[in-house]
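Standup notes, protein team

Yesterday: finished cleaning the Caenorhabditis auriculariae set.
Today: HORMA domain-containing protein structure.
Blockers: none.

Input for HORMA domain-containing protein:
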Amino acid sequence: MPPAVSQVSHSQDSIQNISRRISNGDAVHDTKWTQTFPASVGDEVNSHRFIVRAVFLAFSSILRYRKILPEDCFRTNYITESVKVKSLDYKNGLGGRVAAKIRGASEAIKAGYLDEFSLVIYLDEENDDDAAEVFTWKMFYDDGIPYAELSSGNVGGTSLQRLASLKFEGSQKVCHQFVLMIRSIVLMCAKILKPLPEKAMASFRIKYRDHTPGDYKADGFLDHPTYFNVPEGIQSATVGNLRPGFHGSILTCCSLFMEDGFAAESQLKKAIDSYAETNGFGVNDTSYQSFTATNEISGMDTPPLIEKPRTAEEDEPMETESMGSHPSKRSKKSSEPPAKTQQPKRATRARTQTAKIEKKAKISPKKNQRHYGRVSSVQVASP
């Protein structure tokens, strides 16, 4: 477990480390990379620019490989000379509207207010708080604002504590981390997770940091008193992590369509370590790391009984350049009436992340009430 260090001391240490690297000409010398990201991500401005663009590309890949949006919502982008990805296309009507929502979350990162940004997939429109699958981007900031979690003395070590223990080690390493994260997203979405049911719906959710002003609202998001609920025994796994100069992030996935979290992380580690070694990334420096803590969602529990996912064609093998195959369109619903089947029991809710709804008279003016934001549906991209 990383030591419970104070936010200020960690920030000062990072600034000294960053200053040394900038003075030594720290930069990525890949022309495709520099068309999308800053060559150096050590200073605060470029660290932010990198993170918001990484968020955009990561969630574009998730939306595509989980087949939440149609293929025409995406366009091709290169992130290095040999690696290309599909990102949301601003020129496409639906793609552009969804991209605007991610941009709203990015502005919250720039303001230092975003704690978590999540893509929540649910199966019942009437119960959209009951998540069947969630991809969560957890943020860490070297901004001097204390995190209570970093001094909690938790024995298991939370994901934030583990992320805070990492240090910026150069822009080239960050480049490698992001390439590996994209590889992990493709593997997780196309190979490890079972296909989503036809009726699956999705929305973006934001959890704000504790110091966020009560009247702050990310562009395109509506305030909401709750975040989301996950059922007992849901499986979870770390997808990847990034550590530019002044920020840190972890991308995790919890899903009813993941058979075993430990097996998923083992499969990711084997694939990513092999890819890193083959491409000369240096396995010791950029190898896959798990941030799943024992006190958070367990990857070892048995998932509850769930609806059988829809049948889908096998995805083609992933290619180094294309980062994966083009996903096929979802099959149309059969015109024949469905056979009667016994409905599975609803899983017991064990982890409910909610904001307390208190009367104004009881809220201390010195402490902001934690609040959340959401977009009602990614498919229609409207609040």
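Follow-up from PR in the comments: Residues 44-65 form the longest helix (22 residues).
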